[in-house]
């Protein structure tokens, strides 16, 4: 067509394309170059939705996975989204979702009373009430609530942890529409399943 300017949109590339411009690759918001390294102690979410202590043996940036050795000497590949570095006392805390420490009056960093990880109130799912990080208040993050309330044979039915878990189940920790499913709709690329968002089986 005459009179039209050529399109300035970048050409599409596939993961196998040898000419991928790293500046054009959209990275997950939680990824940083130094987030994971070999020998790092981490908490890794397993197929039961619980977190287990392990040590990173190998980092695969292309697949966004780490080979993790667990306390029983088993080794498995775990997606970055299911790996959480343990909180280090005395170290400046970053939100473990967005990896930032920037705060506003309506979106402060709150700390889990169990794992000591920091979350922005709006980054945690569900969002954290404003009065949570005040003195005398003990708040637990989604991962810790599931770890405490989930038992072999089923979850707790009564008590404060059971109530917290029921509240957490009202919102999914991922967007259903953003999941990329296989043709039979059995597995998804992000490995997010059920209300816990864990990798499933």
TrEMBL record:
Annotated GO CC locations: nucleus
GO BP annotations listed: negative regulation of gene expression, epigenetic
Molecular functions per Gene Ontology: chromatin binding; DNA binding; zinc ion binding
Record InterPro entries: KDM4-like_Tudor, PHF1_PDH-finger1, Tudor, Tudor_PHF1, Zinc_finger_PHD-type_CS, Znf_FYVE_PHD, Znf_PHD, Znf_PHD-finger
Keyword list, A-Z: Metal-binding, Nucleus, Repeat, Zinc, Zinc-finger
Primary localisation category: nucleus
Subcellular location: Nucleus
PANTHER family given in the database record: PHD FINGER PROTEIN 1, POLYCOMB-LIKE TRANSCRIPTION FACTOR
Name this polypeptide is given: PHD-type domain-containing protein
The organism of origin for this protein: Engystomops pustulosus (Tungara frog)
Protein's UniProt keywords contain Repeat: yes
Domain annotation PHD-type: ranges: 92-147
Disordered as annotated region, ranges: 1-21
The keyword Mitochondrion is assigned to this record: no
Taxonomic lineage from the root: Eukaryota, Metazoa, Chordata, Craniata, Vertebrata
